[in-house]
Amino acid sequence: MESVKPELSPVPIWRCRNAECKVWVREELASSASPECPMCKGGMVRGIKHLPKLIKKHKSPRKSKDEASAW
Ligand SMILES: [Zn+2]
Fold first, then answer.
1. What is the pLDDT of residue 68?
2. From the CA of 66, how far away is ligand 1's center (Å)?
3. Quick one: CA torsion of 43, 12, 10, 2, rounded to 10 degrees?
4. What pLDDT does residue 61 have?
5. Is residue 4 part of a domain?
6. Domain limits at 49?
7. Which segments of the chain are extended strands (E)?
8. Which of 21, 24, 37, 61 could form a disulfide bond with 15, CB atoms 3.0-4.6 angstroms apart?
9. How many domains does the chain have?
C-alpha cells in the first residue's frame, strides 16, 4: 500500500502578531499589502507556512514569461 502524502510547499502568509491569536491568511488572499487581523484587529507579520499544494483541476500550460506582458 502506498500512502499518498500531500506535497507541501512553502507559502508566503500573513500571521497575527499576537502570539495567542492563531489567525493567518495566505499572502495572495490578503486584502491589502499590510492586512490587519480580522479577529483582534492587530497588525500582521509576514511568514512562511508549509501547505499542501493547491491542485488545479484543469491543466493550463503557461509560460511564466507571458504574465508580465499580459497587460
Ligand atoms: Zn489576531
1. 58
2. 38
3. 90
4. 64
5. yes
6. 1-54
7. 8-16, 24-26, 44-52
8. 24
9. 1
Q: How far apart are CA 23 and CA 40, in angstroms?
A: 9
* Residue 10 placed within a domain: yes
Kindly give the distance from the C-alpha atom of residue 51 to the centroid of ligand 1, in angstroms, as a whole number: 20
Q: How many residues does the chain have?
A: 71
Residue 62 lies in a domain: no
Query: Could you give phi then psi for residue 27, rounded to 5 degrees?
Result: -60, -40
Ligand 1 centroid from CA 54, angstroms = 25
CA distance linking residue 38 with residue 33, whole number of Å: 15
User: Strand order in 24-26's β-sheet?
Assistant: 24-26, 8-16, 44-52
CA of 36 to the centre of ligand 1 (A): 8
Q: What is the pLDDT of residues 49-60, one digit of tens each?
A: 999 886 667 765
